[in-house]
Amino acid sequence: MSKALSNTQQRISALLRVIAIVVILLGVVFAADIYQTVLIPQLVPIFYFMAALMIFTGVIVLIARFD
pLDDT under 50 in the chain at which residues? Predict the structure, then answer.
């Protein structure tokens, strides 16, 4: 039983890491897209904050340890 639980935990951990990498890549693409797009100047910091938050969340999930 312990072996099956360990295997399940490994799969969940791997899935979370893949999702974290996808979120980081989306954040980087989002920030690059904002940089190249003409927006209302008041909205730019909000979109940059959203991109930074996505990148930060992805990094935290990558370095987190799930036991």
Answer: 1
Is 55 in contact with 28 (CB distance < 8 Å)?
A: yes
Threshold 0.90, pTM exceeds: no
The domain of 13 spans 2-63
| Contact between residue 24 and residue 55 where contact means Cβ atoms under 8 Å apart | yes
3-class secondary structure, 45: helix
CA-CA distance, 26 to 62, in Å (whole number)?
15
* Cα–Cα dist 35/38, whole Å: 8
31: number of Cβ within 10 Å: 16
Count of the separate structural domains present in the chain: 1
Spatial neighbors of 30 by CB under 8 A, at least 6 apart, are 47, 50, 51, 54
Q: Could you identify the residue written with the tokens 């360990």?
A: 6
